[in-house]
Amino acid sequence: DGYANVAALPQPVTAEDSIRWPTDLESRVVRGGAYFDEPSQCRSAARRGSEDEAWKDVDPNLPKSPFWYTEEPALGIGMRLVRPVDIPSTTEEKSQWWKADVESIEFDVNDRVSQGRGARGIADESLPKEAKELGFAN
């Protein structure tokens, strides 16, 4: 189980120590269930492994798109945004949160952005300031 390593750490575990950064496409977990799942699977504790290559099998693009999912179970995947509570102070710390962690994803996304099919940047310039004012960040 993915939580065994965290349980073995001295308690309480810090947020930084509890993160298990993925090392490849297939070591990720999809959580929460989808509209086609049984009711017992439609909860945050429901998990299934990712199968990125199989999920993109019908993608007509060459190279395969990093965004193309047209078959179950990928159709039921939403999005979970994760960010640190405190804004990382160094470029290296920031890249751990924002940079693609698998070379093929980084290549595919850079390719799409260079073709004008995507963009990078802060979605809302006022968000960091507002989060700080509300006490959500240092």
Describe this structure in words.
By secondary structure, the protein is mainly alpha-helical. The chain has two domains: 22-80, no CATH class; 81-138, no CATH class. It is built from six helices and two strands; from the N terminus they run ααββαααα. It has a two-stranded antiparallel sheet. It is globular. The model has no long low-confidence stretch (mean pLDDT 78).
The dominant shape is globular
> Structurally, how many domains make up the residues?
2
Helix content: 25-40%
| Percentage of residues in strands | under 5%
Largest pleated sheet = 2 strands, antiparallel
Number of helices: 6
> What string, H for helix and E for strand, traces the elements in order?
HHEEHHHH
Low-confidence stretches: none
Strand order of the largest sheet: 1-2
What does the radius of gyration come to? 18 Å
Mean pLDDT: 78
Structural class: mainly alpha
The N- and C-terminal alpha carbons lie at a distance of 34 Å
- DSSP summary, beta strand count: 2
Multimeric organization:
single chain
